[in-house]
């Protein structure tokens, strides 16, 4: 043993008193219940020991719970080996066995400890002093002085050249991490123009207008076959059926009307055989506006319930969306299939700062949004 | 029952440690640190233990999860999706669910723990708010708490997006739609976050490093700081017999509190395991892989995002185009719901301790917490905030509400638009009245005692119920009531009259402050209003107890 005087160094005689008992008043927080070291816990005010009968009962009860925890913990390990996974039913059984045993282990352990605390440990009502958080004035003064003195010693206060060059030296280093983040984004920052275009504006490889194909099957749509009024299809661009980036802007909702149902808001020139194509991407924050109510011609976005009148240019009739779903110019090609004749006249999807009132601009030019 | 010598196996190692780091000195001061007890003090612990469980289950998930948006064809053992093209992230989440023993359990426990973590934090923060436990010297811990809450929402948002199923994609899409609507920086933020156009191929791996490294790292650091401050400042305590602003009454850290905390951890863990076993959560295999063209009807975010969802649903269509066709688009229908409610709640929470200090002029330390009824304005403000939040949250599920009660969906929105303004106001008035009513009841009990249930016949023939003094513990609780402080001079109309107020009080702001102080503070119902007769020595509770006479009314 060493010869210094740390408390735990001579465990045989000193530790018990220090650990179980109270710190000496010199430590500052003296009133841990007693001035005297509590080698005899009975004497400590605020510590009421359990009577032995209760404690005995508690011990048995806690032990029972710990045994349950042990057995159920074993059960967990056994379940892991016994129950395999692989399909829904097997996974369910395995989940039940593993989860059930784990739950029982943890809860039994928790209950056992609670019994231990409640029935075996004493009831405590110890009192400890609180002191204001603020340090005493001498300490504050000392720290203040030391701080100033240190600053003076270091020369930082007296030597402006040192100070300023140090600051200058740190500045680029502080900006460096930000610079490094530049390549998180794409090299070209023509974001608005990207957002204004969809793949519907691009011709196919062989220079033909792009066909509308059914989402999921990828089948092109013959206008003559899509002929029952009230019919609706979810449509994606030919050649981009699995391109999520393209789909995030180019997905359509295709609706077949009776000619007399179509109102002035819808551009009839883009409605061959009274078939109308709207962007499916909600103009609110971009969910697919996927629900359609045949009788009312309402397109409903399930996210925040913006409702659009499909018969009238998909104008907003309810909900938070502020703009109609853009209509895609479509036509029937020589083989009778529906194709896009051009891109959307206005950007699809949620609004963004650079977008502007694209609809008004198109109307000004005499077009139809 | 002498403790005897420390057994060798403990003495050896502790000696080793102490000789090297002097741990004894620290332990000497801290082993018997006293922790006060009250059920509501356990709420923060739920959050703490849930976080530990998140770390454990989350680490398990990282061993198998592949944070990649690269395409793969699913060949795992869930039949319904065999042969389907999907992202690696989704495929690996399915793999965890169906091909790793215990994987589904860990996924479900992780998700349940996430819900318990955020819920625990919220309820804990409410406890701290309503009891005024954020007051000096605990403002810093309050601010850390507000940061923790914000980060937890972010952590949940990034985690929810990871499995890349149809539901998580819907959440991601809404996040993108909101981000891109921000003025000036919106397109930049989204293109940088997604590495190009939505959805791109980067966002899952980026969210992954945020979700498992950056945010948990910050959370862990802040939680540690939270604990250290709590330890240093000592826990607040409920008012009661023998409890003062200068002491702590309770059980010692070692052994009682330590054991209780261990049991409580096991209990939280057990409940999360129970939920993970029997309550299915986020069955991603039913939703299918993400595809921006599709959505599953009735998709709901996790509960902690519900209020944002509700705000988005509630807002009427409104878009401003500053420069007509050439830009300057402000989609107020997105900006307001995305920023304002969250802004009000988080900024309000962060500033409240300082605003209250400014209004009451109270710069003293507080270690005994308030009963909510005894600071009626604070309690009312809290209740209106809860109503505001709660209404938004409910409206985030207005489709379910409409379906459940068979009312028109649109009407739930119209009614919601009115309620969001009226509700908080009503909550304020009702809470304020209730608080005063409860104060009056306390004063009554102190004045007349409690009804004993014993009926006595007086010599005059009249029947009365015998009133007995309240239980001493309850009486001590009631008698702790102190008036909410008012700044010096605020209660006189002529601030110069009493000579105390500074020049600042005469400025318009100063006058406003004085008015607010007078309304906020003071004794609304004195305990003596119950016409005390026995305990005269306590009759003037609240006056003369403070050394600053200006603080009392
Ligand atoms: C601290 C707060 C945390 C919250 C609120 C949280 C929340 C979530 C949520 C809601 C999910 C979706 C779960 C699902 O699949 O149903 C998730 C997934 C995940 N989390 Fe966390 N998490 C947290 C911490 C962590 C930590 C610390 C790690 C790792 C060390 C982690 C690793 C993961 C992984 C790998 C997944 C994807 C697994 C999968 O979906 O199959 N999380 N998280
Ligand atoms: S995204 Fe369609 S209503 Fe919000």
From TrEMBL, chain A:
Q: Where is this region: Disordered?
A: 1-30
Coiled coil spans: none
Q: Which residues cross the membrane?
A: 61-83, 95-121
Cellular compartment(s) = Cell membrane
Cofactor(s) listed in the protein's UniProt record? [2Fe-2S] cluster
Q: Where is this chain compositionally biased, Basic and acidic residues type? A: 1-16
Entry keywords, A to Z:
2Fe-2S, Cell membrane, Disulfide bond, Electron transport, Iron, Iron-sulfur, Membrane, Metal-binding, Oxidoreductase, Respiratory chain, Transmembrane, Transmembrane helix, Transport
Task: List the PROSITE patterns.
Answer: RIESKE (PS51296)
Query: Where is the major localization of this protein?
Result: membrane
The record gives the membrane topology as:
Multi-pass membrane protein
Question: Which molecular-function annotation in GO is an example for this chain?
Answer: 2 iron, 2 sulfur cluster binding
> What protein family is recorded?
Belongs to the Rieske iron-sulfur protein family.
Functional note:
Iron-sulfur subunit of the cytochrome bc1 complex, an essential component of the respiratory electron transport chain required for ATP synthesis. The bc1 complex catalyzes the oxidation of menaquinol and the reduction of cytochrome c in the respiratory chain. The bc1 complex operates through a Q-cycle mechanism that couples electron transfer to generation of the proton gradient that drives ATP synthesis.
Q: What is this protein called?
A: Cytochrome bc1 complex Rieske iron-sulfur subunit
Name the species this protein comes from: Streptosporangium subroseum
Q: Which lineage do the record's taxonomy fields give for this organism?
A: Bacteria, Bacillati, Actinomycetota, Actinomycetes, Streptosporangiales
UniProtKB/TrEMBL annotation, chain B:
Kindly list the places in or outside the cell where this protein is found, as annotated in its UniProt entry. Answer: Cell membrane
Residue ranges of the TM segments: 46-65, 111-130, 142-162, 174-195, 207-232, 261-281, 334-355, 376-394, 414-432
Q: Where is this region: Disordered?
A: 487-508, 523-553
UniProt keyword annotation of Metal-binding present: yes
- Mind listing the UniProt keywords for this protein, alphabetically? Cell membrane, Electron transport, Heme, Iron, Membrane, Metal-binding, Respiratory chain, Translocase, Transmembrane, Transmembrane helix, Transport
Q: Name one GO cellular component term.
A: plasma membrane
The UniProt entry's GO biological process terms, in alphabetical order, are: respiratory electron transport chain
Which Gene3D superfamilies does the protein's record reference?
Cytochrome Bc1 Complex, Chain C
Pfam families recorded for this chain? Cytochrom_B_N_2
InterPro entries the record matches:
Cyt_b/b6_N, Cytb/b6-like_sf, Di-haem_cyt_TM
List the PROSITE patterns: CYTB_NTER
Is Flavoprotein one of the keywords? no
Residue ranges of every copy of the Cytochrome b/b6 N-terminal region profile domain listed in the record:
13-239
A molecular-function term among this protein's GO annotations: oxidoreductase activity
Q: Which metal ions or organic cofactors does this protein require, according to UniProt?
A: heme
Compositionally biased residues, Basic and acidic residues: 530-553
Give the E.C. number(s).
7.1.1.8
Membrane topology per record: Multi-pass membrane protein
PANTHER family documented for this protein:
CYTOCHROME B
What is this protein identified as?
Cytochrome bc1 complex cytochrome b subunit
Could you tell me which species this protein originates from? Answer: Streptosporangium subroseum
């Amino acid at each position: 043993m060493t010869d210094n005087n740390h408390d735990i160094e001579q465990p045989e005689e000193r530790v018990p008193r220090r650990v179980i008992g109270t710190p000496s008043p010199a430590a500052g927080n003296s009133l841990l219940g007693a001035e005297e070291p509590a080698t005899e816990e009975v004497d400590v005010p605020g510590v009421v020991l359990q009577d032995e009968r209760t404690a005995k009962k508690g011990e048995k009860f806690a032990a029972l719970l710990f045994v349950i925890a042990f057995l159920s913990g074993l059960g967990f390990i056994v379940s892991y080996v016994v129950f395999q996974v692989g399909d829904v039913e097997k996974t369910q059984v395995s989940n039940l066995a593993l989860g059930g045993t784990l739950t029982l282990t943890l809860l039994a352990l928790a209950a056992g400890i609670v019994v231990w605390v409640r029935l075996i440990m004493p009831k405590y009502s110890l009192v400890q002093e609180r002191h204001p958080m603020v340090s005493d004035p001498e300490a504050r003064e000392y720290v203040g002085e030391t701080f100033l003195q240190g600053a003076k010693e270091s020369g930082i206060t007296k030597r402006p050249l040192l100070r300023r060059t140090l600051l200058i030296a740190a500045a680029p280093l502080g900006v460096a991490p930000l610079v490094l983040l530049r390549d998180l984004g794409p090299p070209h920052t023509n974001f608005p123009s990207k957002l204004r275009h969809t793949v519907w504006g691009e011709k196919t490889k062989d220079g033909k207008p792009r066909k509308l194909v059914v989402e999921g099957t990828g089948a092109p749509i013959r206008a003559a076959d899509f002929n029952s009024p009230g019919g609706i299809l979810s449509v994606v661009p030919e050649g981009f059926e699995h391109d999520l980036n393209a789909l995030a802007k180019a997905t359509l909702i295709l609706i077949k009307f009776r000619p007399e149902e179509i109102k002035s808001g819808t551009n009839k020139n883009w409605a061959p055989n009274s078939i109308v194509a709207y962007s499916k991407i909600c103009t609110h924050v971009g969910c697919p506006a996927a629900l359609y109510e045949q009788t009312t011609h309402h397109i409903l976005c399930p996210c925040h319930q913006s409702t659009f009148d499909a018969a009238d240019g998909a104008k907003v009739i309810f909900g938070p969306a502020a703009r109609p779903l853009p209509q895609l110019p479509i036509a029937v090609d020589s083989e009778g299939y529906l194709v896009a004749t051009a891109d959307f006249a206005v950007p699809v999807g949620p609004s963004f700062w650079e977008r502007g009132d694209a609809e008004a601009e198109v109307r000004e030019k005499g077009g139809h949004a | 029952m002498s403790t005897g010598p420390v057994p060798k196996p403990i003495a050896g190692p502790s000696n080793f440690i102490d000789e090297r780091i002097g741990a004894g000195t620290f332990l000497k001061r801290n082993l018997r640190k006293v922790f006060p007890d009250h059920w509501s003090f356990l709420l923060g612990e739920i959050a703490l233990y849930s976080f530990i469980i998140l770390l454990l289950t989350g680490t398990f998930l990282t061993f198998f999860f592949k944070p990649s948006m690269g395409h793969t064809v699913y060949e795992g053992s869930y039949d319904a999706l065999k042969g389907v093209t999907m992202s690696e992230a989704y495929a690996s989440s399915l793999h965890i669910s169906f091909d790793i023993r215990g994987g589904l359990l860990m996924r479900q426990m992780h998700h349940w723990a996430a819900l318990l973590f955020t819920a625990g934090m919220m309820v804990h923060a409410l406890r701290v708010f309503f009891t005024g436990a954020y007051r000096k010297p605990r403002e810093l811990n309050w601010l850390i708490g507000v940061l923790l809450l914000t980060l937890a929402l972010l952590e949940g948002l990034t985690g929810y997006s990871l499995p890349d199923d149809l539901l998580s994609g819907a959440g991601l899409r809404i996040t993108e739609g909101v981000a891109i609507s921000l003025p000036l920086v919106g397109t930049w933020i989204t293109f940088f976050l997604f590495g190009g156009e939505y959805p791109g191929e980067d966002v899952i791996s980026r969210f992954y490093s945020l979700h498992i490294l950056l945010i948990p790292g910050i959370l862990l650091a802040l939680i540690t700081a939270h604990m250290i401050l709590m330890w240093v400042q000592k826990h607040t305590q409920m008012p009661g017999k023998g409890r003062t602003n200068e002491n702590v009454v309770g059980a010692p850290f070692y052994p009682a509190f330590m054991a209780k905390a261990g049991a409580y951890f096991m209990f939280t863990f057990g409940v999360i395991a129970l939920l993970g076993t029997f309550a299915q959560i986020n069955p991603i295999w039913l939703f299918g892989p993400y595809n921006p063209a599709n959505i599953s009807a009735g998709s709901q975010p996790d509960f902690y995002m519900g209020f944002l969802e509700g705000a988005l649903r509630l807002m009427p269509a409104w878009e401003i185009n500053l420069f007509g066709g050439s830009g300057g688009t402000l989609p107020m229908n997105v900006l307001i719901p995305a920023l304002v409610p969250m802004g009000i709640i988080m900024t309000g929470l962060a500033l409240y301790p300082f605003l209250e200090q400014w209004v009451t002029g109270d710069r003293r330390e507080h270690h005994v917490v308030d009963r909510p009824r005894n600071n009626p304005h604070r309690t009312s403000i809290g209740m209106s905030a809860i109503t505001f939040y709660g209404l938004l949250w409910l409206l985030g599920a207005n489709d379910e509400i409409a379906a459940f009660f068979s009312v028109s969906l649109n009407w739930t929105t119209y009614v919601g638009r009115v309620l969001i303004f009226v509700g908080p106001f009503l909550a304020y008035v009702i809470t304020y009245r209730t608080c005063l009513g409860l104060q009056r009841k306390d004063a009554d009990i102190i004045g007349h005692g409690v009804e004993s249930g014993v009926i006595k016949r007086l010599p005059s023939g009249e029947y009365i119920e015998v009133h007995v003094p309240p239980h001493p513990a309850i009486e001590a609780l009631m008698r702790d009531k102190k008036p909410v402080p008012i700044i010096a001079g605020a209660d006189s109309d002529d601030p110069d009259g009493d000579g105390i107020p500074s020049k600042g009080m005469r400025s318009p702001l100063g006058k406003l402050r004085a008015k607010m102080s007078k309304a906020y503070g003071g004794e609304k119902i004195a305990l003596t209003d119950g016409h005390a007769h026995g305990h005269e020595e306590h009759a003037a509770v609240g006056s003369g107890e403070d050394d600053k006479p200006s603080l009392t009314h």
